[in-house]
Amino acid sequence: MAKAVNVSFKSAGKLFYFDTDGLELRNGDNVIVETGRGVGFGTVKGPIFELNDKDFAKSLKKIMRKASPEDEAKNEENLAKRDDAIATCREMVEKHHLDMKLIDAEYTFDGSKLIFYFTAENRVDFRELVKDLASHYRRRIEMRQVGVRDEAKMLSGIGNCGRGFCCSGWLQDFEPVSIKMAKVQNLSLNPAKISGCCGRLMCCLKYENDVYQEMRKGMPSQGEVIDTPEGRGRVIESNILMNAIKVRLIEEERTKESSEKLSSDVYTYPKEKIRRLKGGKRQFRDESVLDEIMEAVGEEIISVVE
């Protein structure tokens, strides 16, 4: 079994496995490693652990050494040159009239490569830009296009909650987020309230999704017909956290001649007190009945196109 550690190259970046090569390492130690981009400066995250997968362990790259004071000084120097590189590149972007937004710049630890990160709506021909940058810096230049979520992670900022972005503070990787998660949590489907500063659905919708999915089991949907201790009724609201189902009883069934009539009183039951019917999830065919119910509970109907 190989002994390995997790190494991160940014404060909230992805974690990569590296073979310790017999070095005694602790959480927070700075190390020098070999990566696909060349020699890199990283930080150990967490304790040493053993890998049982022999095939995977054989493919691990080894940590070259612990970072010395000279290595740390060189890394600080590379970071200090970042702002100058961004300013120079932006001037050249304007010179070549390129429709792109420069986000960040990064020197590899050994200084052999300079990487620029940018966003753009369309394909960008930056060949002439790269030639000018290579001539100016006398090193290899790499341009990397990133998405809006990666842009938010790199630039950081304050979210709707008043705290710093999760993606730039501690979230190591982005997980898929869907509008269904907002529906399960009974959140407002107003894009301004469930979208982050990047314009995409907020990452935090994922955090409690599994709990809501578990609590939702057995809960009827809005508009569903169920059996209650007082008789058959139609659900007007389901509160998952409170385990409360608001129902209006069906006083008269819908016929060809008349619409369905519901009681004016609203009854509240826990999910243990109701029984769901097969096919009870049918939606309202008579919009006037739906309007009547929604008016009674003081809610608004929001149409969302997914």
Short note summarizing the structure:
Helix content is 27%, strand content 28%. The chain is built from ten helices and 14 strands.
Question: How does this structure look, described?
Answer:
This protein has 306 residues and is of the alpha+beta class. The protein has four domains: 2-67, no CATH class; 81-146, GMP Synthetase, Chain A, domain 3 (2-Layer Sandwich); 151-214, no CATH class; 219-297, SH3 type barrels (Roll). The chain contains ten helices and 14 strands. It has helices at 54-58, 69-80, 82-95, 127-137, 148-155, 166-169, 179-184, 191-194, 209-216, 287-297; strands spanning 2-8, 15-19, 30-35, 38-51, 63-66, 101-107, 113-119, 140-145, 225-228, 231-239, 244-252, 261-262, 267-269, 275-276. Strands 9, 10, 11, 12, 13 and 14 form a six-stranded antiparallel β-sheet that branches. A five-stranded antiparallel β-sheet has the order 2-1-4-3-5. The chain starts with a strand and ends in a 9-residue tail after the last helix. The model is unreliable at 282-288 and 293-306 (pLDDT under 50).
Spans where pLDDT lies below 50 across 5 or more residues:
282-288, 293-306
Helical element count? 10
**What string, H for helix and E for strand, traces the elements in order?**
EEEEHEHHEEHEHHHHHEEEEEEH
CATH topology-level fold name of the largest domain: SH3 type barrels
Shape: elongated
| Radius of gyration from CA coordinates | 29 Å
Number of domains: 4
Could you estimate the helical fraction of the residues in percent? 25-40%
Distance between the amino and carboxyl termini? 48 Å
**What's the CATH first level of the largest domain?**
Mainly Beta
Biggest sheet character: 6 strands, antiparallel
The number of E-state strands comes to: 14
Structural class assignment = alpha+beta
Level-2 CATH architecture of the largest domain: Roll
> Kindly state the mean pLDDT as a whole number?
86
Percentage beta strand: 25-35%
